[in-house]
Amino acid sequence: MSATKSRSASIGQIVQHVLLVWLADNIDENNNECQTTIAKLQSSIGNVNTFTSVDVCVGFIENIHDKRICMMTSSELGEKVIPRIHHMPQVDSIFIFPAGRKRHETWMDEWSKIKGTFTRITPICDAIKQVNKQCEHDSLSISFLNADAITTEKKLDELDCSFMYTQIIKEILLKINFEHEHFEQFIDYCRKQFAANKYELNNIEKFRREYHDHTPIWWYTNESFLYPMLNRALRIMDITVVINIGFYIVDLHRQIQELHRKQFHQQDSCRQLRLYRGQGLSKADFQQLANIQGGLIAFNSFLSCSEKRDISLNYACQYLSNSDMVGILFVMTVDSNQSTTPFAAVENMGCFQTESEILFSMHSVFRIRHFKSIDKNNRLYEVELTLTSDNDEDLRILTKRIQEDSDGRSGWFQLSVVLSKMGQFNKAEEVCQVLLERSTNDREKGPIYHQLGCIKDQQGKYSKAIEFYEKALKIDQEIFPSDHLSFAASYNNIGEVYRKMTAYSDALSWYDKSLNIQEQSLPSDHPDLASSYNNMGIIYGEMGDYSKALFYHEKALQIRQKSLPSAHPDLGGSYDNIGSIYLKMGNYSKALSYYEKSLKIRRKSLPADHPDLAMSYNNIGSLYGQMGEYETALPYFEKDLQISTHVLPPNHPDLGISYKNMGMICERMDDYSKAQEYYERAVNIVEQSLPADHPHVQACRKLLKDVRKKS
């Protein structure tokens, strides 16, 4: 039978963390009884996906990676599908409906995720609602920051990007004056997201009518679309949702801030609190937590805790039967007079009556003090945390580095710059598009076009990069004198893109313009001059003028040796570039010496999956390949490919080159079938990302054509 999906399947997934998969052989969404069942299910879990085919259902589940799944299926189909999906960590709970003739069948005992058998829809809706609530509770965005990574001079992309994202988002939102039109835009957005869910549409209309009749805390605790939408947006860094829901984030933060001022800023009320939170963590998150004792943990969304240990411990104990999760009892020490994040007692302020509940504003940062198992099977842990203060040195360093890496910009532009440096190119572009829509004159648009050019360059979309750079340049030419230093960066960036497109004469022309301005305006040992000399060396190397290439690379190296720490990544770049020139000259011993210097620095100063490390592995592999030492070359190319597939977009030209290099080594080792497989992947990528007449495209096509004759 073919599979059918409810209309909410393509919509609600965008804004909710938990979804329901209903597998049955008699689902007919045109049937009134079936429609009624779906409507009841949607009142418990907004996103309902229906299937009549086991294979299609399993395929759907396999492709879900960032959500939790509740499954409902019949006893008969359950015997077929559960053995195929039970091991998948995204599957949280399974409900048998309708139950077979025997309410409990022996085959069910094998599968711990089966939560019960049901003969009526109302009890199963209640059970699904509880599981949904628990999964949403555990879906909080959490960042883990190792103390060593904070204090060493490493690049921003080594740190947890969600930490950077939420800190900057919070700063930006608090500076915006939200008006009624923003509220109406949010309502329109929600209506589109839940167009097929009548239950949530009613909640949205209630929210529109009654928003100002209740407090933000009341709405936060209300069981509707708002809480899961907010948590998911902050967890997956969905800039579209964050922009739409921004007014509410600010309202909720300010209510907590005001309550904090009233409750804790009086002299006699300053005290130290002991708070608790029961939490389930995935095994991967638990391992991260276990590895960073003494480091920082940040809860990036709003955080609810209790003053009652037993309530939180009972919650953590619920995970003892879940093989994919680990139960955590966070024990938090909080000095109410020195906290970096406002928090407040919200007892009886929510939609439901609560006892001894404390709510923190978004992005609360804690120091991990102690970590211990509190059950005999090592499935339940107690983790002691202390809320950071303004005097926390690691937090101060982090904040300073975020400000430095955002190039001194503020607001949404700052967010785009940081997202780009973290490799979040699509999200960085989203922010720029929002800024363009809101800009009112060319002076505001110029830096945005330049940033879009940088993003497209890093994505390997070179023609679009030049288009944006030239738009920015045209605006700057109307504003600044012709020798203004800002033009040097624009000329250099355009030259760099032309170099990547192998348009060397054009690239050299732009590099010359950039260098002329810098030599007139900067001191002779300025790092920006080193970058320009480095680029001139690269272009002459690719044009085959090796003596000029070495001249410029050595000038760059001299400046960097004077002005940078001995393990700075840019020094590694200079050594790598000089090694590449010696390789082209056939001087393998000198090339290897420089490559090894570069690799040593990069291993010390960069994360293990950084693209520059991939470049080092690729270059050393190429050297050994040219020397005919294929067995030695292969593991270097494998490391290059492993990193490249992890960090680059799937159609990035550099990834195509990595596949090409793997193919060449396999071919020379007479493994023609593997070589053909790698060449096919390379051709597919470079044909998508580069012009048809690009040398890389032509080379990959020829290699594939030749190896097919050998296969």
Automatic annotation (TrEMBL):
GO terms for cellular component: kinesin complex; microtubule. InterPro entries: TPR-like_helical_dom_sf, TPR_rpt. Pfam families: TPR_12, TPR_8. Signal peptide: none annotated. TPR repeats lie at residues 446-479, 488-521, 530-563, 572-605, 614-647, 656-689. Its main location: cytoplasm. It comes from the Eukaryota. It is found in: Cytoplasm, Cytoskeleton. Keywords: Cytoplasm, Cytoskeleton, Microtubule, Motor protein, Repeat, TPR repeat. Belongs to the kinesin light chain family. Oligomeric complex composed of two heavy chains and two light chains. Kinesin is a microtubule-associated force-producing protein that play a role in organelle transport. This is Kinesin light chain. It comes from Adineta ricciae (Rotifer).
